[in-house]
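User: Teach me something about this protein's shape.
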Amino acid sequence: MGQFVLAAKVSHVPSLMLSEAEGSPLKSARADAVAALRELGRRARERNVSSFIVFDTHWLSNFGYHVNANPRHCGTFTSHEAPQMIRDLAYDFPGDGALGSAIADEAVGAGLNVIAHRVESLGLEYGTIVPMHYMNPSGWAKVVSVASPLFTSLDESRLLGEATRRAIERSNERVAILASGSLSHRLWPNKKLGPEAWTSVASEFNRQVDLRVLELWRQRRYREFIDMLPDYAIKCNGEGGMADTIMLFAALGWYDYEGAAEQLCDYFPSSGSGQVNVEFHVA
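Assistant: First, the predicted structure itself:
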């Protein structure tokens, strides 16, 4: 029987990569966030994680839910969105086709439109590549990436998260689930893409709500957070509708989850969005 041994909300912003690039104006600016991702990777390895499942809000789908169940993820990635930030980034991770197919099977059984793909030319998006670059750099664990549909609902994403938990339990894997995406996600307009893009959140309202969310998590007031999620996702411009966070909390047990939330780095802005790395401890 498989085990769910690590859960986290993680950032995947390109400024993490720029923070490590020589000559970059952001050199070392995201050192704490990078260190937090590496620490999550260390914890995953310490807990003998064999597979990562990444709910990726940068792999956005117009039609249903999709799972990248390729047996191997190998390629060189340049971001079509920001090629000046992520360019020619090589990645090579083993996949977990069995677990990916099990997620789709469980979700289809719950009435969702989900397809598990084994298509060699289907690469990973940077919502998966960036956290894996720091957490799983040598490809010591397998990777399954799950897309976030644009035209879905909280209820459907909740069903997908619950299906993921069932798939883990019927597997032989020790699994980490990552909700890869921002908190608030209102970005600066082009004319304001100056230094403030890296140092401030584009909306003070969004920043205040993000900070309140982190407070609720620290206090384990998850029911209140879940109840505010639909409005939070809409009013604070949630990336991918915050589907990653919905799916993560569904896998954790929704209202029944009572574990500790451990914030591993300071809340930080990136291009106007709000970012953080938090582990949600599982029994």
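Now, about its shape. The mean pLDDT is 95. Residues 135 and 215 are 26 Å apart (CA to CA). If you'd like, I can walk through any region in more detail.
User: That's plenty for now, thanks!
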